[in-house]
Structure formats: structure tokens, C-alpha cells
Design a protein that fits this description.
There is one protein chain. This protein is α/β, with parallel strands linked by helices. It folds into two domains: 8-77, Winged helix-like DNA-binding domain superfamily/Winged helix DNA-binding domain (Arc Repressor Mutant, subunit A), CATH 1.10.10; 84-195, Rossmann fold (3-Layer(aba) Sandwich). The protein has helices at residues 8-26, 34-41, 45-53, 67-77, 93-99, 103-106, 137-144, 155-167, 194-211, and strands at 31-32, 65-66, 84-89, 109-116, 125-126, 129-133, 148-151, 172-175, 188-191. The strands form two sheets. A seven-stranded mixed sheet has the order 5-6-4-3-7-8-9, sandwiched between helices. Helix 1 packs antiparallel against helix 4 (67-77) and helix 2 packs across helix 3 (45-53).
């Protein structure tokens, strides 16, 4: 399937479609209409059809969508039919929590290694993966076909480490460090600023309270 330029808003909705369709498939649902999916997901049926039309449509008039087929095709669009090996840089609380999250493997993301500069953490095992020193990282990436790095270190060291990751051959960075990374355009970066998300939640809560006359 030849893909055109797709907006990030559409891309941002694809994982949610994938999750809902996976749940429907697990419950034995064979087909679903855009209207039924709209009711489940609180997204308009028109928006759903527009989103899917970016990739060829998938539906049949009078039938709707075959759940298993649509789930599989969206998985392919998201690249989930391939295996991705990832490492975690930073074995603090967040790094260890992500390493312990077993559902990554269900999506094809294989937790391969974890690295830290704190000598007290070296050798600590996270799901059978021992924390290694930072100086081992470059060789480990090259020898294990790692293509994704998860960055969970403080912002002070994040820029330098990101540059090193690029030199070592990393193609994508999941960035939890509260800093914008300066990497080449061909390196894919997904920034996750936890405090930003919490502030958005605070805004929505504040707006709701004002609408209800509570504050």
C-alpha cells in the first residue's frame, strides 16, 4: 500500500484504533461499522472513515469493517509486524518501571539492555536484563541490532547521550528527558514530557470546574 503524507493527528489516533480493534477481536467480534466504532471510541464516524481513507479505506459498503483484517492492517501501518529491539538509558525509577512493563513484547518491542553511570545500579536485574555501564552501550547496540533507545536520564546529560546514540546507529529515540534533542532529521524522536501531560490535565480540570461554577 502506497502511503501519502499523513498528518500527525491521524497517526496519533492509530494506536487507539489498534487497541480497540484488538479488544474487539479478542471478544470474538468479526465485523463492525464506523458508527459502532464511533460509539465505542467517542470519535465521529466521519472522522473514522476519513482516517482510514488515508490508507485505502478498508471497509465494504453494507458490511463495515472486518475487525481482524483492520486490526492486522493498522498493525502493519504502525510497523508492529516487525520486531524492534530497544535499550533503556537510565536505570532510575522510571527506567526500571519501563523495563518491567511486559506488554512491550506483545507489540514486537523487545527489551534488550539497560545502561546507567551509577555504579550502585550496575548488575541490578530488570526482568533478567542486568544494568550495564554506559561505556558498554556502543558495542552492545552494534552487536544486538538495537534500533530504539529509551532515554530516561536527567536533562543535563541527555543531549550528549543522544548524540552518542546517533553515532552508535540508533534510529529512533523515545525521549523522557525534559529537553528537546538536537539530532539529525532522519532520527525519529518521540518526546514524552510527563509534567506537560499533567499540566494539560490540570487545565482541563480547571476548565470543567469553571463551567460547573465550582471555582
Amino acid at each position: 500500500m502506497e502511503e501519502k503524507d499523513i498528518s500527525q493527528a491521524v497517526v496519533g489516533r492509530l494506536p487507539r484504533y489498534f487497541r480497540y480493534l484488538g479488544e474487539l477481536k479478542d471478544h470474538g467480534v468479526e465485523r463492525i461499522s464506523s458508527q459502532e466504532l464511533s460509539t465505542l471510541m467517542n470519535v465521529t464516524a466521519s472522522q473514522i472513515r476519513q482516517d482510514f481513507n488515508n490508507f485505502g479505506g478498508f471497509g465494504q459498503q453494507g458490511y463495515g469493517y472486518n475487525v481482524a483484517h483492520l486490526h492486522r492492517e493498522i498493525g502493519k501501518i504502525l510497523g508492529l509486524h516487525k520486531t524492534h529491539h530497544f535499550i533503556i538509558v537510565g536505570a532510575g525509577n522510571l527506567g526500571r518501571a519501563l523495563g518491567n512493563y511486559q506488554s512491550f513484547e506483545k507489540r514486537g518491542f523487545v527489551f534488550t539492555g539497560i545502561f546507567d553511570q551509577d555504579a550502585a545500579l550496575l548488575g541490578v536485574s530488570i526482568r533478567g536484563v542486568a544494568v550495564q555501564p554506559m561505556e558498554n552501550m556502543g558495542r552492545f547496540i552494534r552487536e544486538n541490532g538495537v534500533d530504539i533507545a529509551v532515554l530516561t536520564i536527567p536533562k543535563a546529560g541527555a543531549l550528549k547521550v543522544a548524540e552518542e546514540l546517533v553515532r552508535y546507529g540508533i534510529k529512533a529515540i523515545w525521549n523522557f528527558a525534559h529537553v528537546d534533542l538536537n539530532v539529525p532529521e532522519d532520527i525519529q524522536v518521540e518526546n514524552v514530557h510527563l509534567s506537560d501531560s499533567l499540566m494539560k490535565l490540570s487545565y482541563n480540570l480547571n476548565r470543567y470546574r469553571k463551567e460547573k461554577g465550582e471555582g
